Amino acid sequence: MSKSFTTDPNPDLTYFAPSGEIDRGSALVVFPGGGYSHRAEHEGKGYAEFFAAEGFHVFVCAYRTGELEPTLAPAPLEDALSAVSIVRKRAEELGYSPNRIGVIGSSAGGHLAAHVSTVSSSWGAEYRPDWTILCYPVIAFFGPAAHMGSRRNLLGESADDEVAKQFSPHSLVDGDTPPAFLWHTLEDAGVLMENSLLYAESLRRNGIPFELHVSEKGGHGLGRGADFGWAERAVAWLELTGRVGSAEVVA
């Protein structure tokens, strides 16, 4: 890669305050999918509205997509790392804990959420999410499960497998990677289910807690339209494991 790596100080973030009767004192940064060519609104605003109603402070990140010369990378990762840092710095102002900040991503946005989760520890605690939710994520950029469309859009046509491994989160998991909730469908032909299995196996080998759900039915890009309550299950996982604050009633 010919670009130097720096964090973008001003990624575009849209804030959704808790909209229901509870405030969990926790924040969530959303990375919509779109194959790194665009960002899907139903995986951005659509998620934000649900989690805000569940008492989360939600920030949808409009990370950079499309064509940048000579490659798009590492622009999306720069934006994602900066987004986590900015959300952490705003904790006191907006009223949530700086130690209860998660990320969620779908498809290529899931790749970005997993990528920021696996590289952030080397950049310092302010960039590291405390937990990760991955919805039918792109994980592999090499091997039989690789999602070549996202790889080409992010790394360009000329990137080889050695470069691709540096952008494949299952190859980057270590003991500092945050816990994760993952879900996929068996019928997903857009991003193969093996992507979630690869990440889960890497978490298991490194002793990182996770929860994995595989639904038999459903294609790719379902978002909140999936026929099982993955979002409710993710919230339950966060509650049961103590990764979010108590659901305090808003006066």
TrEMBL record:
Molecular functions (GO terms): hydrolase activity
A Pfam family recorded for this sequence: BD-FAE
InterPro entries cross-referenced by the UniProt entry: AB_hydrolase_fold, BD-FAE-like_dom, GDXG_lipolytic_enzyme
SUPFAM superfamilies: alpha/beta-Hydrolases
Keywords: Hydrolase
Entry keyword Isomerase: no
Ranges for domain BD-FAE-like: 21-202
Record carries keyword Hydrolase: yes
PANTHER family: AB HYDROLASE SUPERFAMILY PROTEIN C4A8.06C (PTHR48081), PEPTIDASE S9 PROLYL OLIGOPEPTIDASE CATALYTIC DOMAIN-CONTAINING PROTEIN (PTHR48081:SF6)
Protein name, UniProt field: Alpha/beta hydrolase
Organism for this UniProt entry: Puniceicoccus vermicola
Lineage: Bacteria, Pseudomonadati, Verrucomicrobiota, Opitutia, Puniceicoccales
